[in-house]
Design brief:
9 helices, 73% helix, mainly alpha
Length: 154
């Protein structure tokens, strides 16, 4: 019969392996956001099923791999739109989105305005601001961050 602490140690090691795998998936999304990525491809790369990856990723990071990927794409799109030298369609494809409609919808959900409106506003709002500051000031909020930032009733 095994000692109970051996089971806990094995479970802790497995948990650390799972977290390392999830970090590698998140890092891959950060690096390859403009590539055609989907949950199935990410799961294959991590040697797990798509369902398992989605559940574990959501538990670890509070959102699905797809939502995280789209947030990365929208953040990059915001930077490209602030530059002002690409059309919204060019930005959409440059960040890895295959559908202008999906891109515009997700952009509007995260940022609160359409890509075209953002481009007009961002150019005005960030004029003269260093790009590193503009990036931080205009960063989209994920839903869980927005909930935390909301004022609490007295």
């Amino acid at each position: 019969m095994c000692h109970p602490s051996w089971g806990r140690a094995r479970s802790a090691a497995r948990h650390l392996d799972d977290l390392a795998r999830l970090r590698r998936v998140r890092d891959r999304i950060d690096r390859e956001y403009a590539q055609p990525l989907d949950v199935e491809a990410l799961a294959r790369g991590a040697h797990v099923s798509a369902g398992h990856l989605s559940r574990q990723f959501r538990l670890a990071y509070g959102e699905s791999p797809y939502a995280y990927l789209m947030t990365r794409r929208i953040e990059r799109a915001m930077a490209l739109l602030r530059r002002g030298d690409l059309s919204v369609t060019e930005v959409c494809f440059a960040v890895g989105c295959a559908s202008l409609g999906t891109f515009s919808t997700r952009f509007t959900e995260l940022v609160g305005m359409s890509p075209s409106a953002y481009r007009r506003e961002a150019v005005r709002a960030t004029a003269g601001m260093p790009s590193c500051v503009a990036k931080q000031v205009t960063r989209p909020l994920r839903k869980q961050e927005a909930r935390v930032a909301e004022p609490q009733p007295a």
